[in-house]
Write a structure and sequence with these properties.
CATH architecture of the largest domain in chain A: Orthogonal Bundle
Largest sheet of chain A: 3 strands, mixed
Shape of chain A: globular
Structural class of chain A: mainly alpha
Order of helices and strands of chain A: HHHHHHHHHEEEHHHHHHHHHHH
Number of strands of chain A: 3
Largest interface: A-B, 32 and 32 residues
Strand content of chain A: under 5%
Strand order of the largest sheet of chain A: 1-3-2
Radius of gyration of chain A: 23 Å
Oligomer: homodimer
């Protein structure tokens, strides 16, 4: 082994420690969200803060600095180049923040999520407000350490979607919003009004859980490499590519909520489970970006999971399991799950209006981070924007500003990924149909495995080796565009609403 | 704050890191036993090995050495003296083992437990054998590093019960064994033969779980500071004194198994939940020793949980919940749960013969560690001893040599603690009845809280500040003796069996 190869092995050994700490933190975090007894939370926050501190030390050590310097200018292959870039990015990002502040922030976000949970349960923003104020202050402070070029919010966007800026998002979101508004207007005038009443009969948790697991298995989720559990807000977390867990939240009075939530998280999990074993120690053994991740989850949830072909196969099983669907035709069911109705809660929004929920959050975050509005204004602004964009108004904080956990975890800049995921997903679909023209016929026969294989070969197994823009180009041959998603929406809803 | 006080604070800050790592490891370990997907196990082993390595570094660092040297000869209060002694003991124990070997051992035991689980399920000792051989070799190797005076096995005993030796155990166990044998002979000749058939009707898991939780609550187990889950082998683990978890294993065809298992683990958990908050950072924030811990679990399980007074109160509730007990009188039920019958499985053994199971394991471990027998001989020797001591013989490995998880975790020297727990427990009972003469009248009225309070004041809240011998002396005024336990057994079984 030559010197360079030896040094690369050493570096991977070093990186594995960071990965071990992240894996341990993830287990502690998962447990805190899924099963911790209430009085155990405070100490758990301390332990998580300690582990983050240890990660911080490894990411910013002089050893790390030496590795990065050593590899700069060296002739490395794709994976190793990407590994060094990732390490350098982490180094710069964390090195610029004083360690003490970093640890305080991790502890704060850990406690904030519990406060958010209580606030949401009691529908009282004031419980969460002091935490959120601190989190926003931290983010503003951190941006000063990191620096920014055009817009402060760009710095946060770059974490989740390298290369995405306010300028680009403003443009894409304007295009998307216009298209949705036109469609919504047409739908309002349509005489088609799908029945959805049968979704709100009583569906026992046990039967929903069983059906969710059945669908996950058909999707290719490997239960020997993962679990399905319950939590207030659904999420996916990986401890390694061989232990990827998802959670869902069962509503006995709505069949759709847990089902599509599970398919969504299942899309994330299938991604993580398929990442190549060889990426251990490279820091690249997880999804490429939040947007690419959301492209996978929303691809499964909507493009596949709300397609007529999907239910051509699965509705037979659903009818067997749920007598509530007796007398409801496949056509009615299909229209029911694609019923468009502006509503208050993002995760239960229909596929069409969903992006408007994202645009609201994007605008609020952008203004908050740039100091144009303050946390105390949020419930009011939230209400105003929902009224303006969607024509609905929250009755309380729980169904309004408190509905999402993201801000409690400090995730500013994350929300736009969901809408980007829609755009990427439609681009992937367009390419997949070129590669496998009979995709939807296969789906109608209950075959989802070919999908998983196509996604694995094209996207999943590479983990974070390629940047989002590289993946899009590599897979589809084109740059990011809203064109395919808008085409997809127009085609789908024209048919359903006969417009 | 003077220099000494300042140094003590610094030391506690340092120790807290060790405690954080232990807490994190415990969460990962609990999750591995309760819910990990099968393919996630190997990586989890790596993460646990990494965390153990970090603990090792902190316990054996030059910083630790300096702290220990600094405090030696200083005038410290009880808690701080005990803290420094504990740190010094850990330092010596781990410093003498090469770090690499230590990490390998932790990884081995982590994988061994999974192998043991598979071996037990398949009832095939050969699956577990190569792991156990390595574990025994490691222990023999480690004893060479640590050194020993009279008997190699003494070194391992000292981990779990400081001060206990083969010489002392041989003596106490001989005394105990004689007493049990005499009683067993009398019982054999007794015409009393309690019914137990009703315990083996079908008891649904759900109803057992609900009853277990009900009893735990009455015992004072705080569900805001803990959980009850399922695992193959029941255990208790603490992440802090505010997050103490127990597991049990439900057998639908035996009412007793999960119930008394839960009461047993509940006794451990109540101990950990009551440890003083101020012991954070002292390394003393857990039970004093395995023997003292077992005294608490077995006190609740047997002395209280199998007393007539306990069921005078709880049998009414049991009859309400379980129609299987219709027509079974309290007297019959009481005799049923105390039915003596030599059997194969330790954790399901009756209170009287239980100690014989321990003596068998003690003798095997002693011989194994001293190289007088080898792992390959275990199934044979196990069978021979069971035949000789208990008159029963295992049909397969699962109900024989594979029944306990202890060896898979590397816990040699642990088993004697169970029998010591019996002796300590009877000594505590004797003193409690002097302090609170109407204890059993209170229990018959459903009051268990006074028990918890007495144990907390006398034992629990001190954590590991005092050594086992100090606690026994401090609480009862006497040294360890088998006298009270033998008296207790004689009295109880004379009444039940009319002998």
């Amino acid at each position: 082994m030559d010197n360079l190869a030896k040094k690369l092995e050493e570096f991977k050994e070093y990186n594995r420690k960071i990965e071990y700490l992240n894996s341990a933190s993830s287990v502690l975090y998962w447990d805190m969200r899924v099963g911790i007894p209430s009085k155990g939370v405070a100490y758990r926050g301390e332990v998580l803060a300690f582990l983050s501190g240890e990660t911080y030390k490894l990411q910013t050590s002089s050893t790390m600095e030496e590795y990065i310097k050593y590899f700069e200018g060296k002739n490395l292959d794709t994976i190793n180049t990407s590994m060094v870039q990732r390490a350098k990015k982490n180094y710069n990002l964390t090195k610029k923040i004083p360690e003490k502040r970093y640890i305080e922030y991790v502890e704060l976000t850990s406690n904030s999520e519990i406060a958010w949970q209580e606030a949401k349960e009691k529908s009282d923003f004031s419980i969460f407000k002091p935490y959120l104020e601190k989190i926003v202050d931290f983010n503003r402070e951190f941006i000063n350490y990191w620096g920014y070029e055009v817009n402060k919010y760009d710095t946060l966007l770059d974490f989740y979607e390298p290369g995405i800026t306010v300028e680009k998002l403003d443009k894409v979101f304007t295009e998307l919003r216009s298209a949705i508004v036109v469609l919504l207007e047409k739908i309002k005038k349509s005489s088609v009004s799908p029945r959805t009443d049968y979704f709100n009969e009583n569906f026992s948790k046990v039967s929903q859980e069983s059906f969710s697991k059945y669908i996950l298995e058909k999707m290719g989720f490997d239960f020997e490499k993962g679990r399905l559990d319950e939590s207030v807000h659904p999420f996916t977390i990986e401890f390694s590519n061989k232990d990827v867990r998802i959670t869902t939240n069962y509503h006995e009075d709505d069949f759709r909520s847990a089902l599509f939530g599970t398919i969504h998280e299942g899309g994330h999990a299938i991604y993580e489970q398929a990442i190549d074993d060889n990426l251990k120690g490279t820091l690249l053994g997880s999804g490429a970006s939040m947007g690419i991740h959301e492209s996978q989850s929303r691809f499964y949830e909507n493009i596949i999971g709300r397609s007529k072909e999907f239910w051509t196969y699965f509705y037979i099983e659903a009818q067997k399991r749920f007598p509530q669907f007796k007398g409801v035709t496949l056509e009615e069911f299909y229209k029911g799950i694609n019923h468009v109705e502006p509503s208050l809660v993002r995760i239960e929004a229909d596929e069409l209006t969903y992006s408007l929920h994202i645009i609201i959050r994007y605008e609020i975050e952008k203004a908050l981070i740039n100091g144009e509005i303050e946390v105390t204004d949020l419930p009011r602004i939230w209400g105003e924007k929902y009224k303006e964009y969607l024509g609905v108004e929250p009755k309380n904080d729980s169904e309004g500003v408190l509905q999402d956990t993201h801000w409690a975890g400090g995730s500013f800049g994350y929300f736009p990924s969901y809408a980007l995921g829609n755009l990427y997903g439609a681009q992937f679909l367009n390419k997949m149909l070129k590669d496998i023209p009979d995709s939807f016929e296969r789906i109608a026969n209950g075959d989802l495995k070919f999908l998983q294989a196509w996604l694995k070969d094209n996207i999943h197994n590479y983990g974070a080796v390629y940047k989002p823009s590289e993946i899009i180009k590599k897979v589809t041959g084109e740059e990011l565009t809203a064109k395919y998603f808008i085409e997809y929406l127009n085609k789908k809803y024209s048919e359903i609403y006969n417009i």
